[in-house]
Amino acid sequence: MGYREDGLIKLGLYVSYVALALGALFGLLQVLERIPGVTIVSAGTYYLALTAHGVLMALVFTTFFIMSLATYVVTRELGMDTYSPKLNRLSYALVALGTVMAAVPILLGKASVLYTFYPPMKASPFFYIGATVLVIGTWVFAANLLLTVRKWRSAGNSGKLPLGVFGVVATLIIWYIATIGVAIEMLFQLIPWSLGVVERIDPLLARNFFWYFGHPLVYFWLLPAYIAWYTILPRLLNVRLFSDFLARVVFVLFILFSTPVGYHHQFMDPGIEAGWKFLHTTTTFFVFVPSLITAFTITATMEMAARARGGRGLLGWVRALPWRDPVFASIAFAMILFGFGGATGAVNAGNNLNYVVHNTAWIPGHLHLTVGTAVALTFMGLSYLLLPQLVGRELHSRRLALVQVYLWFFGMLLFSSAMHYLGILGSPRRTYDVSFGGAQVAQEWGPFLIAAAAGGVLLFASVALFLYNVLRTITSGARVELQQPGEVPVPEGAPGIVDNFRLFVAIALVLVLIAYLLPTAKIISLGTPGAPPVEIR
Amino acid sequence: MSINRYEKAWLGFSAVMVVAFLSIIGYFSFVAGFQTPQEAEVIDPTRIEEDGRFAEPRVEEVIPGELYNVYMVARMWSYSPKELSVPRGAYVKFYITSPDVQHGFHVVGTNVQANVIPGYVTVITAKFEKPGEYLIVCNEYCGRGHQFMQAKLLVTEG
Description:
heterodimer; A: mainly alpha; Cytochrome C Oxidase, Chain A; two-stranded parallel ribbon; B: alpha+beta; Immunoglobulin-like; 2 domains; six-stranded mixed β-sheet; five-stranded mixed β-sheet; 19% helix
């Protein structure tokens, strides 16, 4: 047997796969519906599907997978059960309850407000309360893991934290800081207003708090993928990570710069002064640095492995990498597409470049490279590695897994290129039908909408293959002996400056205050009478 | 804690790139004047018709050929006015508000765009140099009829 948490780790993964399956169906529906001349569902159903796709993929799939991955990393690397398996169960139960409370109104069409839920468009109060319960569940979850690390320390482990655990701690810290924003928005604005306790809401202030949360949310998704790149890839390739120290610096930089960046989602908003917007542009560019370091460290690690396998030449070593290993291929492709995503993200982050692409198809093009590939493809590849260990069965088919990974890569290349191009042409995102009554300029979008749909079909096929492989593995893979929790190697060296989490949390909070305190006060001081709710219709 | 020399070079390259990007963006923001929307007035979204500008949405000629004010209402799911016309090369100051939910405002093919937020008046200034017919679309989801929300901008030879 493994650890006491293993049952929940598995359950969390299964829930994430169900979300992935439903989310993929809704995604397929969207790309097909947007082909010029094609009508499959009504506009109302389209926007329901759009909301469900965003919530299921970006919030449910990711959150459950990340909870399971974080628990897996902590139990394995520290070689112990979590602080309180009971608290762990409670956290999963709360997250599941919150998910159901939010998902039911979405599927009933009572919460087609998209995953950004901008007021004064009003969803069922259950949607907001469910989302809040989900977040509270993650707080309990994070507390339990942090207490686990403390327990490990007080058991006489005075050395460095294992790198994976270090990354988990950073992720949880970012999550705590980020969710302050959405908690304020929910508790002081959306919930009382949706229940009719207060009549009006300030939609600009709500956007302010939402994006305080909404951008660091992406690092909550991304960092677990980085943890896998940093810890699992070297094991896969049988080399040491090129630089353990810089990997830790990367996680620290994310703690510092993840949150004070939210206005790069609000460059087009009135009521926030240009200077504050430029400050957030600056911090957003700072947050590129840890990803640039990661690109170097991971590539260098791959090169060391390739040269050890006989790879030669300035770039010829690339061929010596195990491209037929689905786990390796998933991480390598995830990183390559994330490179493109980073480049297009630099456009989003520039306050005066942003108005060419803001709210156009460029944005979903970008986020499908980042969360949709760097994160999602890594998680699928990881599943091929972790599931067999957790269920004690062999992977059903390595070949199907490999096909799945390549399908995702090429499908996403097609989908996201088309979407980026549509964005440059001005085609809006989040829109059922972009023909605009046959307007000349809209007709130029047709070929790219078809290309995006073709990419979407490949992606759907990839998810279908993934789910089939996972299902066959769970139900009928050849039995193998479960790995026994063995001796856990403790990293060499004493904790250094990078292990001083308290200091970094303090600096991060100061940066958040600098970036947000005055502009938020300014919005409040404008004193809008606010907006009454508008029911979805 | 020693850092490899290639890694140092890469860190230096990263730093130079970030500084270069920020300098270019900063120059165009604050020197060349390519600025994002920032002005805002507040307004009661349930009573916008009490404001003469939004009771009668229109294009107002302030200085012929040079400055025009556009008073615009974005609502579920249309803009008023539906069609507007301004001469090329003139400054066009848009005042846009919404009586219901959030909307977008994007003149397709240009960098003129802004979010429209109920409770606020969005104020942006633009200048159109190329005559022709432009499509204005709402690019912020605003409900079931979001895809119908469009307007037409005519930039005349002046």
